[in-house]
Amino acid sequence: MDMSKGDSILVLGAGGQIGTDLVHTLREMHGGSRVVAADLKPQSGSLSDGGPFLQLDVLDAQSVADCIRTHKVKEVYLLAALLSATAEQKMKSAWRLNMEGLFNLLDIAKELPGLRLFWPSSIAVFGPTTPRDLTPQFTVMEPSTVYGISKQAGERWCEYYHHKFGVDVRSLRYPGLISYKAQPGGGTTDYAVDIYHQALDKGEYTCFLREDTALPMMYMPDAIRATLELMAAPPERVKIRSSYNLAGISFTPAQIAAQIAQHVPGFSIRYAPDYRQEIADSWPNSIDDSRASEDWGWSCRYNLESMTTDMLKHLKAERQLA
After folding, report:
1. What is the DSSP letter of 287?
2. For the chain, how big is the Rg over CA atoms in Å?
3. Smaller CB count within 10 Å for the chain: N or C?
4. Given pLDDT bands bounded at 50, 70 and 90, which one contains residue 4?
């Protein structure tokens, strides 16, 4: 979106996997001083050094509203959440954070016309009764996890606030996200991040999913680009106000291990499925994101091979600098 001089962007949950990359990209685009990073926990490095950083609790609606007004925020990215595997262990905490945080921002946006809000949904909104292959935009949604239930409810509230109050809220159903800039954050798909680190550090990996478990994934540069393209789209192009399906790459642990082995000689993997296997089994194998393509021109760029090459290049560089 076009921002006037003095307007700012606020990223809540900036210390997480998506937030780390998003803040970096937004500061490159708009300048460090115009992107306010906020997180419940103190942060070091580029998040706090590259621009304004605030310790902020999304459940404290008044403090969030004060921040938005003080910094003349016109665009908010609400990324604070407990993810799938963590949410199963902390059910009520996850529901409170994931839902009340969203309500706080929707209510603030309702009172501040012109504020644009991004809230991420997830493939976790789907469940065991959802069609598994090329899951459609509109389909059966019976999530069987705390995280998925909160995301499905959030989608409905986003759509409601848009139609009832005109709130400009936008959302993507992220698949599993893979990044070299942040450590895994408690998601079921995080094995696909950890496996790269373990391959370089130990030459082996123990996977908590079966070798044939296909899940939709996406390399973080594609996910960040999709997010920014959606937020930059004219309002009339954003025709779905619950959340858009987003597709990248679908692969199994065995397939990613085979790709890594081409770059890390002698790499080996073993399988020890745990409670996260049941979560993964409730999610799709692949996603149909044709509506995102039709409405605002989305297309994925990375495949498993190009992602693996890029991930290992950056992680090797980090280890040489350490």
Report:
1. B
2. 19
3. C
4. low
Q: How many CB atoms lie within 10 A of CB 39?
A: 25
Q: What is the 3-state secondary structure (H, E, C) of 141-190?
A: CCCCCHHHHHHHHHHHHHHHHHHHHCCEEECEEECEEECCCCCCCCCHHH
Q: Distance between alpha carbon 121 and the CA centroid of its chain, in Å? A: 8
Burial 175-200 (b: 16+ CB within 10 A, else e): bbbbbbebebbbbbbbbbbebbbbbb
pTM score, whole prediction: 0.92
* Backbone torsion region of residue 50, taken as left when φ is above 0, otherwise alpha when ψ lies between -120 and 50, otherwise beta: alpha
Tens digit of pLDDT for each residue in 163-172?
999 999 999 9
SS3 76: strand
Banded model confidence at residue 1, pLDDT cuts 50, 70, 90: low
Residues taking part in catalysis: 147
- In the chain, the domains with their CATH numbers are 8-175+220-245 (3.40.50.720), 177-217+249-321 (3.90.25.10)
The owner of tokens 């469940």 is 127
| Mean pLDDT value across residues 130-140 | 97
Query: What token pair was written down for 214?
Result: 């296909």
Q: How many Cβ atoms from other residues are within 10 Å of residue 5's Cβ?
A: 6
- Please give the average per-residue pLDDT across 71-85, as a whole number: 91
